[in-house]
Amino acid sequence: MTDALPARRLLLVHAHPDDEVTGTGATMAHYASTGAHVTLVTCTLGEEGEIHVPALAQLEARQADQLGGYRLVELSRACAALGVTDHRFLGGPGRYRDSGMMGLPTNEHPRAFWQADLDEAAGLLLEVIKEVRPQVMITYDANGFYGHPDHIQAHRVAMRAAELAGADGPAKIYWTAMPLSVLREGMEAFRELDDNPFADVEKVEDLPFGHSDEEIAARMDGTDHYDRKVAAMRAHATQIPDNSWLYGIAGDFGGEFMGVEYFLLAKGERGPGEGPHDWENDLFSGLSLGEPTAAEAAAI
């Protein structure tokens, strides 16, 4: 299988449809555009998500419980916008259910991802790793970036699968991150927005996420693909309303915030970087790979 795939192969493990866009959409679009093979594994259908389209309200879990099927279609459209053709659900669509926010009764659902047997779920991801043989994998940190149980479980499953893969696993593993310096700049910019998500936050250190600039390993500049990221966000219409602060950022600041994504390096050797913090600008930096395609070579 890998003989037929491009030299550079990237695997992303996300919890719900739309998670791939907000934290890694520009990175996915960048690598897809260079000819790298991008594989997205989503762990649930996002059945417990809040619906922002009134006409579809009856799809919610407490009514028809059909939101997951609708979000499957939204995810397909988002991947098309990003140029990603290889997308799978962990164990197949519906194998694991959205657990809802931490502490809710939905955490106890028998199919809730939060209740998944770790080695069983990791074994399903291991099958994907063996098939694609990605050199780089992206997932969340141990807190799931902001504490959602499915994000935490996605982290556990991804890291366990990489452990089970051993030498055949990804050479580098990144966790999504946000530098505190960028958060500070963002909070100042958000103060001008009517829909300010940080209105009740006095300082960035109070947020459940954020890392010092010294901890950040990579800064991916995907501003050239900012329009693709916004199109992918719009594909997730049930989850991201038209008046979302995300579109406020997109309209007011363009690709400056939306098109740049940051990562911690959890496994592997840090490659050559640039700028005052020597941040990598390529997640494959430092790896010895096969001959790149023409598109890959142009992007390096």
Automatic annotation (TrEMBL):
Cofactor(s) the protein requires to work: Zn(2+)
- Family under the similarity heading: Belongs to the MshB deacetylase family.
The protein's role, per its UniProt record: Catalyzes the deacetylation of 1D-myo-inositol 2-acetamido-2-deoxy-alpha-D-glucopyranoside (GlcNAc-Ins) in the mycothiol biosynthesis pathway.
A single BP term in Gene Ontology? mycothiol biosynthetic process
Q: What is the lineage of its organism?
A: Bacteria, Bacillati, Actinomycetota, Actinomycetes, Micromonosporales
Kindly state which keywords UniProt assigns to this record, in alphabetical order: Hydrolase, Metal-binding, Zinc
CC cofactor note: Binds 1 zinc ion per subunit.
The record's section on InterPro entries has: GlcNAc_PI_deacetylase-related, LmbE-like_dom_sf, Mycothiol_biosynthesis_MshB
For this protein, the record's SUPFAM superfamilies field holds: LmbE-like
Gene (name only): mshB
Q: Which HAMAP family match?
A: MshB (MF_01696)
Q: What is its EC number?
A: 3.5.1.103
Residues crossing the lipid bilayer are: none
Protein name in the entry = 1D-myo-inositol 2-acetamido-2-deoxy-alpha-D-glucopyranoside deacetylase
Q: Does the keyword DNA-binding apply?
A: no
Catalyzed reactions per annotation? 1D-myo-inositol 2-acetamido-2-deoxy-alpha-D-glucopyranoside + H2O = 1D-myo-inositol 2-amino-2-deoxy-alpha-D-glucopyranoside + acetate
In this chain, Zn(2+) is annotated as bound at H16, D19, H151
**Keyword NAD attributed:** no
**Pfam families according to UniProt:** PIG-L (PF02585)
Q: Which organism is it from?
A: Paractinoplanes ferrugineus
**Example GO molecular function:** zinc ion binding
